[in-house]
Structure formats: C-alpha cells, structure tokens
Write a structure and sequence with these properties.
Blueprint: E1 13-17, H1 22-33, E2 37-42, H2 45-57, E3 62-66, H3 72-86, E4 91-94, H4 110-138, E5 141-146, H5 159-179, E6 184-191, H6 197-204, H7 208-215, H8 226-237, E7 248-251
Parallel strand pairs: 1-2, 1-4, 2-3, 4-5, 5-6, 6-7
Helix pairs in contact: 1-2, 1-8, 3-4, 4-5
The structure holds nicotinamide-adenine-dinucleotide.
The site of nicotinamide-adenine-dinucleotide has 28 residues, from helix 1 and helix 6.
Length: about 260
C-alpha cells in the first residue's frame, strides 16, 4: 500500500463548503497538515473561527468566505474570491448539508424538505457548475461531493433528506462521465452515521432505543469518526486516486454489505 507523502498537497488549493465543523472541518485540517491552501466557506461565522484557528496553527494559508450555498450569487462570489486569492482551485469538496428530525413522511413539513433541496441539492449543483467553469479554464481539477448511505438505499423517516442525497449521487455520476475527457474527476463519499454535530442533533430527537438503533446500525456497532471520513476524502483528493471517477465511496463500517 502506498502512503501519501507529507508534501502531497503543497501548492494545491482546496475549497470546502460547510467547513465550520464536523466532516468539513476535519478534512480541512487533514489537508492543511499536508500543505494545502484551504478556502473554507460556511454560514456559521462563529464556529468557523475555531476551525480557522486550527488551520492557521498548521502553517497553511487559509481563507474564509461566508457563503450560503443555496444562494447562487454567494457561490459565485466564493469561487471568484478563491481564484483571486490562490490563482486556481484544484479540489472542491461539496460538503455543506442539513438534515431534519426523523419524522414520518406524511407528517414532514414541506418547508423542511424544500430547505433540504435548497442546501443539499441546489447548493451542490451551483458549486459543481462554478467548479466546472474554473476547472475547464485551468484544464483540470477534482470535485468531491458528500452524499450519504441515505443516497444509496432507503432512509425511513428522513425520506426528503434521502431524496436529496440520491440526487447528489446521480449528479456525481453524470458529471463525472461528461467531463472525464476534460481532466476533471468527480466522485462522492457516502458515509453512514458519523459522530458530528449533525448526528448529535438527530440522536437528541430520539429515545434510548432509537439512539441504540442508530449506533448499532453498523456491524461495527459504533458511529464513524469525522477523521475516518476525512482520511478517505484526502486520498480521493490526491493524485493517488487518479483512475477513480464517477465513484460513490461507501464509508459505513459494513452497514451496506
Ligand atoms: N454526520 C453524518 O452521519 C453524515 C452521514 C452522511 C452524510 N453526511 C453529510 O456530510 C456533510 C457534512 O455533515 P456533518 O455531519 O459534518 O454535519 P455538520 O452539521 O456538523 O456540518 C455541516 C456544515 O454545513 C454548514 N451549512 C449548513 N447550511 C449551510 C448553507 N446553506 N451554506 C453553507 N454551509 C451550510 C453548517 O453550518 C455546518 O458547518 C453533509 O452534507 C451531511 O449531509 C453526514
């Protein structure tokens, strides 16, 4: 097995949406330690300060741009500022996402579903388009979308969330095939339950039995750790994954096996 060298990302620029906490922040930190320039975006300006502090401690160059990914003009401004700061964008990680409390579908508020569509799907769509325009001009790049196991199989009580993640999987595969000859690779990661603020919010809505069912959903009988997802994204973002394209990488401790 080849191990990434510690300089693998020196001079490369990675743009991460929803990078204030959870999977996005952990991935940003891992990439910063490998020498990447990081462009972090989020809507949580307070939480992002902590993450930015950790990034700067690594010696990495890091830029924060407040961006609501569901707003196409803010997305456009984010990508413009990233190119102004670093000249190019090598990798875009479309990670920003929201969930809602598990609820039977017939009782789920339409507004929650529409917010999931706005952020989890439209947000990825806007960022994919912005990334493609830049990557076509610079003749290459990589897009990594954070989907979910809920984008590959049923997810009862969060059907609206699941629908957005299935859509991200479809978008990932189609765009990957469309731009393969342009030296642009597009992949996704599909985590199961990972110990982040998102899952902590979900667990807080459940009784003890429900919480046990979430934690026990994986044959490994534990939640995944954000670092375990970050490790996979770092490999995907590196040149070591050069023949992987249009792939949706499951990271679930064996849940879908
Ligand atoms: N935690 C899990 O179990 C799990 C499993 C599968 C997939 N995912 C996906 O992983 C991604 C990261 O989730 P996480 O678990 O780290 O959750 P999180 O809630 O910790 O992080 C999500 C981040 O997105 C940001 N965000 C929310 N709305 C935004 C918007 N409109 N524009 C920009 N940023 C916005 C939040 O402020 C937050 O920093 C999401 O796409 C999520 O759906 C998470």
């Amino acid at each position: 097995m080849q191990v990434l060298n510690t300089q693998a990302f020196v001079g490369k620029t990675i743009l991460i949406t929803g990078g204030a906490g959870g999977i996005g922040a952990q991935t940003a930190l891992s990439l910063a330690k490998l020498g990447a320039n990081i462009v972090l975006s989020d809507i949580d300006d307070d939480a992002v300060q902590v993450t930015m502090g950790h990034l700067i401690e690594t010696g990495a160059k890091a830029l924060y741009v407040h961006t609501d990914v569901s707003d196409v003009e803010q997305v456009s401004a984010l990508f413009t500022q990233a190119v102004e700061a670093f000249g190019r964008i090598d990798v875009v990680l479309n990670n920003a996402g929201v969930e809602y409390a598990p609820t039977p579908t017939h009782l789920t508020d339409d507004d929650l579903f529409l917010t999931n569509i706005d952020i989890n799907l439209k947000g990825v769509w806007y960022c994919v388009k912005a990334a493609l325009n830049i990557m076509l001009a610079q003749k290459g790049g990589q897009i990594i979308n954070v989907a979910s196991v809920a984008g590959l199989r049923s997810a009862p009580l969060i059907s609206g969330y699941s629908a957005t993640k299935h859509a991200v999987v479809g978008l990932t595969k189609s765009v990957a095939v469309e731009y393969a000859r342009a030296n642009i690779r597009v992949n996704a990661v599909c985590p199961s339950f990972i110990d982040t603020p998102m899952v902590q919010r979900t667990l807080a809505h459940m009784d003890e039995r429900g919480q046990k069912s979430i934690i026990g959903a994986s044959p490994m009988k534990r939640l995944g750790q954000p670092q375990e997802i970050a490790n996979a994204i770092v490999w995907l973002a590196s040149d070591e994954s050069s023949f992987m394209n249009g792939h949706c990488l499951t990271l679930d401790g064996g849940m879908l096996a």
